[in-house]
Predict the 3D structure of the following.
Amino acid sequence: MDFIYKNPTAPIEARVQDLLSRMTLEEKLGQMTQIERSVVAPSVLKDRCIGSILSVGGSGPIEMALTSDWADMVDNFQKAALESRLGIPILYGIDAVHGNNNVYGATIFPHNVGLGATRDSELAKRIGVATALEVRASGIHYAFAPCVAVCRDPRWGRSYESFGEDTEIVRNMTSIVTGLQGQRPEGHPKGYPFLAGRNNVVACAKHFVGDGGTDKGINEGNAILSYDDLERIHMAPYLDCISQGVCTIMASYSSWNGVPLHASHFLLTQILKEKLGFKGFIISDAEGLDRLFHPHGSNYQQSVLYAINAGIDMVMVPFRYQLFLEDLTYLVQSGKIPIARIDDAVERILRVKFAAGLFEYPLSDKSLLPAVGCKLHRELAREAVRKSLVLLKNGKDPKKSFLPLNRNAKKILIAGTHADDLGYQCGGWTATWEGKSGRITIGTTILDAVREVTGSNTEVIFEQNPSAQTLASQDISFAIVAVGECPYVEFGGDSRELPIHFNGAEIISLVADKVPTLVILIAGRPLVIEQRILDKVEAFVAAWLPGTEGGGITDVVFGDYEFQGRLPVTWFKGVDQLPSNAVEKSYDPLFPIGFGLTSKGEVL
Ligand code: GLC
């Protein structure tokens, strides 16, 4: 007998209901479970009908694994899942948040704050298309992206994951969802998940809602604001994602007026599912349930009860899944969680899997392998870097522009901790969860790019911390000093003081006292720049976290392309001003949101 759910020409809703009607309680609860790859025993996929597997930051087959190793790993998990009684395929998820950033050799695009500086929604869509190809090439179906946080305070450790502090900028950049998933057809039912085909990935708008609005920018903190402000400032980008057919939405670790999002029936069910009509599935954050009570995981069964009844559909456990399934089974069998809630969750999960074509194409497509880190994608990333650069100062004398630089100058000094460090250029969520220093993947540092663009008669010298002797030599035409932040992620990035790391301000001062200097800041957010330092330099460029294509920086500073980037965030004078957003009467920034110069000194 042909089962409807196995019929690719049957309507998705018919397939969902047919399959749901055949599932046991154990299989339904298994589908609601997402576990980390490192704890997966193939038998558990077959016997427990696990719905999804993920790589938490950096978790992969082996360090610097080939893309084909990734695809083989995912396919092996999938083959085990397909041997389950009903043959329901898994979704494999990863944080592909600026390219497929876990995979060695993948194109690493600028982090979201830099894309926000471009204001270019078409570019964001094209980056989504490229990212989806590089993710599917690795056999992976699901990207925990985009983060659509509206970051209202740069002290937040995840501010670089946000497109900016202004809701309209973030809304404009949600077009990346269409790039990742494909163009939702006009007639597609509102709120329902959409995926175009095998070259697209299931996307995940995150973290719902108000993660970027927590008090003092404290990560996983508490957003204290009215419902109207929550909706106007932080919820608006989700409507854009839902209108593009976003398949999944991730709940935030943070709270709203003291209620944790993971336990908020009002926001997850009454607002997101009922009022906004979202028909994909809501996934928890990693150990999001464990964090509902303190100490961490202390009352786990209660956490499961609150989170599932609030409206969480899939739980990113991701390690202690036996305990999760034990508790969930007890809670359903004891009637504390209604079976109708379970059916709603599983319906949504199956709907996404059918929309994603997983039942038809469960395994990787090796023909996509050449897409990873290909020239076309690196050119796209280089274009994004160019468009993300914000010129904040150009010439001590505004009438005498310092940029563009002369590529045939006699001698150029390249200095600073970030001039020749690919890992610093990429920032967090690259190669590993936190990111790290050094040649972590294939790419071009600022120093590499300067060497490529300068004339054969130009001497390029590189000293991270230039010696007094070097600085004393009279024949240096100009210096480029690249400084900024070391990579960080989540709590690791929360900062009260926002300094330039590694004594970057001193390096700037030392060099600029002796040589005409361009500063390039490699950071996930504005940092404290004292006016006395700014006065010393000839030019200052915010380059954010540009990723692997450092050539995009020299393209602009040496004049092949014009600056077009504008600040997506406020550049404050001091941390005592924070939070500082344009709507306040006391708004007194060093540079206002939207500020940016051209190389001719015109304000964009
Ligand atoms: C992390 C992040 C979330 C990410 C998830 C999986 O803690 O909060 O953005 O998608 O866990 O790595």
